[in-house]
Amino acid sequence: MAKVWINGETSVEVKHAEGVNAVHLTVDDKDIVVSGGQTILQAVERMPGIGNIPALCYHPAVKPYGACRICTVEVSEDGGSKFKFVAACLYPVKEGLIVKTQTEKIKKLRKGIIELLLARCPNVKRVQELAKEYGVEKPRFVLGDQDCILCGLCVRACQEIIGKSAISLVNRGIYKEVAAPFYAYELSGDCIGCGDCAFVCPTGAIEMGPDGKPVLPKVKIPYAEIEAMMKKETVPPS
Amino acid sequence: MVEQVRNLLERRVESPQELESRRQSILAERDSSQTCISVCGGTACRASGAEAVVDAFIDTIERRELQVQVSLKETGCHGFCERGPLVVIEPKKVFYQRVQPEDVEEIIEETILGGRIVERLLYVDPTTDKTITYEPDVPFYQKQTRTIFGANGQIDPTNIEDYIAAGGYSALAKALFQMSPDKIIEEVKKSGLRGRGGGGFATGRKWQSCREAKGDVKYVICNADEGDPGAYQDRSLLEGNPHSVLEGMIIGAYAIGSRRGYIYVRNEYPLAVEHARIAIEQAMDYGLLGKNILGSGFDFTVTINKGGGAFVCGESSALMASLEGKVGEPKAKYVHMSEKGLWDNPSLLNNVKTWANVPLIINKGADWYAKIGTAGSKGTMIFSLVGNIVNTGLVEVPMGITLRDMIFDIGGGIPDGKKFKAVQTGGPSGGCIPEKYLDTPVDFDELTKLGSMMGSGGMIVMDEDTCMVDVARYFIEFLKGESCGKCTPCREGINRMSEILSNITQGKGKPEDLDTLQDLAGVLSAGALCALGQTAANPVLSTIRYFKDEYLAHINDKKCPAGVCRELIQFSIDADKCEGCLRCLRECPTGAISGQKRQAHTINQDMCIKCGACYDVCKFNAVLKR
Ligand SMILES: Cc1cc2nc3c(=O)[nH]c(=O)nc-3n(C[C@H](O)[C@H](O)[C@H](O)COP(=O)(O)O)c2cc1C
Ligand code: SF4
Ligand code: FES
Predict the structure, then answer these.
(1) Which of A110, A221, B147, B611 measures 20 to 30 Å from B519, CA to CA?
(2) Atom of ligand 3 nearest to the CA of A58
(3) First to last CA, chain A
(4) Which domain holds residue A162?
(5) Same-domain pairing of B436 and B540
(6) Cβ distance B431 to B542 under 8 Å?
């Protein structure tokens, strides 16, 4: 017998159903039963009122990627003596797992991540909303003016759903950006102009251009550097 | 053709007994009392001209028709790279250092033919001024325990017979014929061996979980990516004794049930790649790799894969992505790579040094092995001792030796009478340890307690002229360039840390910066996707912890106490000491110095670019740096 929380309000007693891979979890002190083989984020998303896990680089249509780290939660596999930080969008539910989604440590971490994202993209609405929710005011850093948070959703949608891989994440570190293969200034013929990338983008960084193809976000901080580098035909910075 | 096939068949070793008889016949052919000139052919000695020395020896030996009396051997790195090119004359082990091609004729004439010592090529210990004639008496080697690295200086890495003669592949024979896979894993577990790639993960446990993992196809991988600045022990081992690494891998493969292995090696290590390639080829010829190894029925092959050119490619999941031909980006490891790694198959990844420990454990037994080291860290560790230290090089010491012994006894202390300030251990994401902890025993856990880590064994010694804020900035800058950029904390966080540290070193620091740095460190350690980001703040945190005064001096007083940060120092001339020699005046590239002969000079601060040229050339110590 286990208690199942529906909408975070009612608790119903259920018997183990034969053949169902049921996994018992404790999320923010509430015991829930979910089906196995999914991630913490998926499980919690389906239980309104239980847990609070924001997500930026997650979209149900594509494989989880674990890049934004805003979905980080604390979990314990040993009944609550040791906790560790994990990305909820990737961590599989396990029998007896204790999940905490709103501890002080988690809030502080999310605040820190949001501050970094807000400093990079001060004009992005989705980031501003999160900043408000988590009480982040003005970032302590020099502000950038990017629109892209590098969640990679556009790239994954193009690859996994459309099957084209017309765009890619290129370069590394702070120089990473969404670009056409080989840094071409124009998208290749692989782009069919489906607009999936623009649709899935959580920040509006991709717009569809007049030629029916997406206009990709530009990495504005080091763009001049990259251009200079490409002229020299050297590899990206190391 | 027939000849070739016959040769090949003859070379194949079909059983453990044959391996032993082969060893005996190699030894019988060799005369151990014969004079052998062994020249270090490690990358460092090559860089200082070892190849020309080898050529000169070949020429001279041929010209004087000495082929019968002497043999010549090019070995792997001996470790004392500071003094290269190194030449050791066996069997007495006469030790010549910084040998140049011009010295060869004299060595042959005097030492080889005349039995006399060439005094001027001997090593003089700078601490005691004692002249040392024989290699084992060099203080740098004396305090070391060279269980893994010792053979490096003795065998020719391109000749498998050297390795076999030294007892090589006998651990493999023992493992295949006298031990079950479970017994091998038990032995490795009992030895207490922990991964030498940085994390210090229990090797036996990893092997076991890989053995237990479901799957018909399993992989064994050697991590020779070694991207830490200043570290080169993995390279030296793979260059100097590739068969010891291969032997470890074959034993590991047999233990977990794998038939295919990879060596993932940095592309910038051409000699290591070449020697590993030759070793694999020769091991195939000898039936020690490939099908039916030593007649046991066990098959295993190894392929070399050259690295993707990024520090992060050394991280296990990024390494495997790179091996698969994808971008070398880490991914979450909530399911261990030992269960689901390369192409989603169970994969056993170990560091070069970890693999090289395995034959030793199998041959000498776990109990013998576990006697070396401390309670939690067994065996020896190879460190690359670099920085402001007299004896630069690779040292192998038992775990638990103190930092002081390592730096002062083996390393010979700090050059030029300067004072020790800190030692940075563990590679770019390690920490800086100050003088008061010099008596700490070096092992995985103790270093972690001090806010640093073992890492891959990098050890950078810093003297009193080092600015700790600048050091933190340097490492953060390195990590900023090496962050893959996938996750927010690492990509953005390290960049912001670098921004703040640059500001501080330029005198633009704000009092709240230290808090901001600590906050960023928290975001990195809890939020980053892989260990690169999770540990990236160590250099910053450890310098704040131990050298906070220096940060405060930069931030509040706009001073760099060590006189390193250009924006914060001023050069001036002490009129009392200045002899008016005009030397600095001529040297200054911007003409900022004025003055007459035999009159005190002055520096025009507006024109000074703080290059320090005047400071360096002044013979009277009249230029002040503040
Ligand atoms: C950023 C980063 C770089 C790494 N580089 C190396 C490396 O160059 N060589 C290595 O052996 N391990 C490296 N590691 C550690 C590996 O991820 C892995 O733990 C190790 O190869 C496992 O072998 P071991 O158990 O023998 O230590 C690195 C880890 C990180 C996070
Ligand atoms: S363009 Fe949009 S979807 Fe693509 S990576 Fe940037 S923020 Fe994400
Ligand atoms: S939603 Fe999990 S890391 Fe982005």
Answers:
(1) A221
(2) 1
(3) 57
(4) 153-221
(5) no
(6) yes
